[in-house]
Design a protein that fits this description.
single chain; about 525 residues; 24 helices
Length: about 525
């Protein structure tokens, strides 16, 4: 039997394993929205590090990092600044966790709706995040489809591979919710790291047996065409200092408010999680990134030369054509690890907001109608199916490159809740009017510079949107007033808890127990 058929069989077996793993937690996660969306707020430190790291480093990273470095030069490494998200997770996420424990928040719009005492603003945030989650989820399906198709030499075509990824991801989440997602992410993190370095080690030892990585780097540096990958800006001239700033903001600073990362602030078990995250998450990002950058900056140009026509396929091409079939199979499993871990996390967060913050909140709670928590879970599962259909439509048309989907159509719009999130946690004068003015104006500017007008002076749509957002948020907040009880509840009280003058677990145990029953 041809090697490609064995790889297809292995992929199908792994897909079946994922579905089984999800449904093994079906009964447990069906009991409440707290269990399904937030894993009962009981995730330990190791699992939290793994699930957060692999959720940021998605299929975009596994294919996009080698591709970006190969085509744009080492300046693309700026996107690896998402190690900053580890520090932001501790600085910002710890406060979000405290508020989630005390008031039962489960989503970004939960917090922003209550902090800015506005149902309309909460609804706007929920719709914004759900809508722009779809392109990012589509990235993961595209990478799965491309990776399987290339690795099997077309035996498993692109569209069926996308459909397989869709069924896999949706059934895994429908079955087990956040608990299954977090634990499988942990396995995927270990698998992903091992697979990347297996590919690197094999390529180095096989094609550069005398001098290893030094030999490969020397070969790249000595060729004027390939040497550009080691410079900033690289071959495409994209990553000037402005380009690096744009990338760092998009792929680093803004990641803390990506909805699936934001929600991970709620699932931590204790304060200890955040102490561990302060050093372990940046380290996890560094380990994952290093191998991928080695592939794009040294191994790809050394082996493929400088004019490989499809940069998005650099990683699968190296694994499939230049490694053994077993390593090619391990590589495609790594792709599953990266892509599935982000797709299921993003889908789950979108499902939570669509079901709780849009449907249940405005069609039940606002009308004085009670709703059983099991029904919230049921509707969340229905929403998952609808979202995956929308993603399939995007992946079939495939109208943008992998990086465009994430960095032009998703992250800039997620970033528009960054000022009001940080201001709401630290600035007592941040008002409802300021949050609305800043976020809406930022979204408008980002939309204009993304779809209609080229952003001026070489800065990205995200940067212009963020600057506008901050100006309006601060300016309008300074001329309006925030209720005293709001700043007391969301800032002063949290500061007392952090300083130790209020014992958090005496405050939150009853609230969490109540949320589980709600």
């Amino acid at each position: 039997m041809r090697t490609e058929y064995w790889i297809v069989i292995g992929i199908l077996c792994y897909a079946a394993f994922m579905v089984f793993h999800g449904f093994s937690n079906f009964k447990q996660t069906s009991k409440s929205a707290e269990s399904f969306f937030n894993a009962d707020r009981g995730v330990n430190s190791f699992v939290l590090v793994c699930t957060t790291a692999i959720s940021v480093y998605s299929g975009l990273s596994y294919y996009g990092y080698p591709s970006g470095v190969y085509s744009g030069g080492i300046g693309y490494l700026a996107a690896a600044g998402c190690a900053v998200s580890g520090l932001l997770f501790c600085l910002i996420g710890y406060r979000i966790w405290i508020l989630g424990k005390e008031y039962g928040f489960q989503t970004p719009s939960d917090y922003l709706r209550e902090r800015y005492y506005s149902e309309g603003f909460g609804l706007f945030v929920a719709i914004l995040l759900v809508f722009f989650s779809i392109p990012y989820i589509a990235v993961q399906l595209i990478t799965i489809g491309e990776g399987i198709s290339v690795t099997t030499n077309g035996v498993f075509p692109y569209l069926p591979a996308v459909l397989l990824g869709t069924v896999c991801v949706s059934l895994h989440i429908i079955g087990g919710g956040m608990k299954s997602v977090a634990w499988l992410d942990t396995f995927h993190t270990i698998l992903g790291v091992c697979a990347v370095y297996i590919v690197v080690i094999y390529l180095v030892t096989k094609y550069f047996p005398n001098g290893g990585l030094v030999e490969a780097a020397t070969a790249v540096a000595s060729n004027p065409e390939t040497a550009k990958t080691l410079s900033t800006p690289g071959p495409s001239g994209v990553y000037t200092w402005k380009g690096i700033l744009n990338m760092a903001l998009t792929g680093a600073v803004a990641t803390i408010v990506w909805p699936h990362v934001f929600m991970r602030c709620y699932i931590a078990k204790s304060t200890k999680n955040f102490l561990v995250m302060s050093w372990a998450l940046p380290l996890a990002h560094l380990v994952l990134t290093f191998g991928l950058v080695i592939v794009g900056s040294i191994l790809a140009p050394a082996i493929l030369g400088s004019n490989f026509p499809e940069p998005d396929k650099v990683m699968p091409m190296l694994a499939n054509q230049y490694c053994t079939p077993l390593i090619a199979f391990v590589s495609i499993l790594c792709l599953f690890a990266f892509a599935v871990s982000t797709a299921d996390s993003m889908l789950l967060s979108a499902s939570a907001m669509a079901s709780r913050d849009i449907y249940i909140r405005h069609f039940y709670e606002k009308k004085g109608r009670s709703v059983d928590s099991r029904k919230v879970v049921y509707f969340g599962r229905v929403v998952l199916v609808v979202e995956m259909i929308a993603c399939i439509v995007i992946t079939v048309t495939k109208s943008a490159s992998i990086i465009d989907y994430a960095y032009k159509l998703s992250s800039p719009f997620f970033a528009m809740i960054l000022p009001c999130t940080i201001g709401g946690l630290f600035w007592k004068k941040g008002t409802k009017e300021g949050a609305i003015a800043g976020t809406v104006s930022g979204v408008i500017i980002t939309t204009i510079f993304t779809f209609f007008v080229m952003p001026p002076f070489g800065f990205s749509a995200l940067l212009w949107g963020l600057a506008t957002n901050i100006v309006f948020y601060v300016g309008v907040s300074l001329v309006t007033t925030v209720p005293a009880e709001i700043s007391e509840k969301y800032i002063t009280r949290v500061e007392r808890i952090i300083s130790g003058s209020t014992e958090i677990f005496e405050i939150t145990n009853a609230a969490v127990a109540e949320a589980k029953q709600a």
